[in-house]
Amino acid sequence: MSNPVGGVGREARFVALFEATYADLVRFAQRRVPEPQAEDVVGEALLVAWRRLDDVPAAPRDARAWMFGIVRNTILNTQRGVRRQEALAVRLAEATSSCSPDDADLVARQVDLARAWGRVSAVHQEALALAVIDDLSAREAAAVLGISAVAYRLRLSRARRALRAQLGHRATPAAAPAGLTERQTS
Amino acid sequence: MKHLDEFADLKTLDPATTDIDPHSPRARAVLQRVLTTDPVENVRPHRSRRRVLVRVAVATTAVAVAGLTVFVPRESGPMPSGDLAFATWTAQPTGLSAEERADAVKQCRKSLKGMGQDDQINRAGTAMVERRGDWALVILTGHDQFAASCMTNVNPRNRHGYGSIDGPGRAPVGPRQLSPSQMGTSGGGNYGYLTSAVGRAGSDIVGVTYNSPTRGPVQASVRNGYFAFWVPGSEFDGLHPVPVRVTYRDGTTAAVTLRLGY
């Protein structure tokens, strides 16, 4: 397992990164590509990380977010021949069957949510999923998307309103200051 | 993020699995492959026999829709399926005119641009162009077993496509061997899913037939040391072996299993 170019220290750093993030990376990919392809996508992203190991943030949470960004870009790159996309849609699981009244309520909410989810844009799905499903802070989610934290909060705010509107609630007025626009940071 | 509590039920619809082990044989194989790659190499590394980057194409969009149709089959619109996008598909490949062929190859090179191997793509020759209805499958090959393949729509009113790159660095195949470099389901979105197998074929192999459970016998193209076939819909993945029947140059046939290696 030795590498003629990389030293032992480099290899040990990568193995530590791999073991700390692999499961989360596969889950991140499973939410965005068909499950059989998730580990292949992660393998491709890990190759990129191996080459850019010096760029990996030192803090574990930041390193995880950085790796999510690599996985995301790997998926987007594979799609460029079809349609240039700026965001990845996020899929949801099927609602579970119900046995108790409580479960029935949950399933009903899940069905409503899934219906609404299918009607919001990939940009909004992605913004919401990073926070709610991938469990990232605004700063970490912004790093995944390559935008500023302010821009991410703006995007998330719009996504919340979009999903809420699809759920049949009344959309709230825009929370962001007028004129504030997103800006790519990388 | 307390303001997101209203959407907490999203977490209950997380499609990701929980039992992912970084010490599993598959995970360790991925780690081993990465660690044996030169980190300063500016081209793709030598690969294991399994093609790493399975085409995901527009699958993300497709799966998102597919998952939701369980709940809202009508209100969300029809689920993408190969039946519409690949309605012109044929079980036997057909040829292309010289102009169509040149155009398919041109589109293929175009769809592969920007994937980090533009020089290889520019230098690659054409190993195969086969057509099934509106779609052409193109295989480009180059130095050191470099290969790339594309699905390209040849209908001038609906021109688009996508591609994938494999190798370089694969071991040569024996004269009676099939060595798939990609297998599985891809596509989605507006196009629907398709299932394909592409790889190298030994010099004694002149025919490959896949028996589709939904479409019947499907004849692969075998040319210049490569084989390829595809069918609309989702029929197999890259994780499980797929039986095919091979015809050899001497006229004999044999049942063979396509299997991606690691």
- The sequence of SSEs of chain B as H and E is HHHHHEEEEEEEEEEEE
Name the quaternary structure: heterodimer
CATH architecture of the largest domain in chain A: Orthogonal Bundle
Average pLDDT value of chain A?
78
Number of domains of chain A: 2
**Euclidean distance between termini CA atoms of chain B:** 42 Å
Tally of individual domains of chain B = 1
Radius of gyration of chain A: 19 Å
By DSSP, the count of extended strands of chain A is: 0
CATH class annotation of the largest domain in chain A: Mainly Alpha
- Of all protein chain pairs, which has the greatest interface, and how many residues does each chain bring to it? A-B, 75 and 73 residues
Q: What is the typical, i.e. mean, pLDDT of chain B?
A: 74
Overall 3D shape of chain B:
globular
Number of strands of chain B: 12
For this entry, give a set of tags:
heterodimer; A: 186 residues; mainly alpha; Rna Polymerase Sigma Factor, Chain: A; Arc Repressor Mutant, subunit A; 2 domains; 7 helices; 61% helix; globular; disordered N terminus; disordered C terminus; B: 262 residues; alpha+beta; 4-stranded antiparallel β-sheet; 5 helices
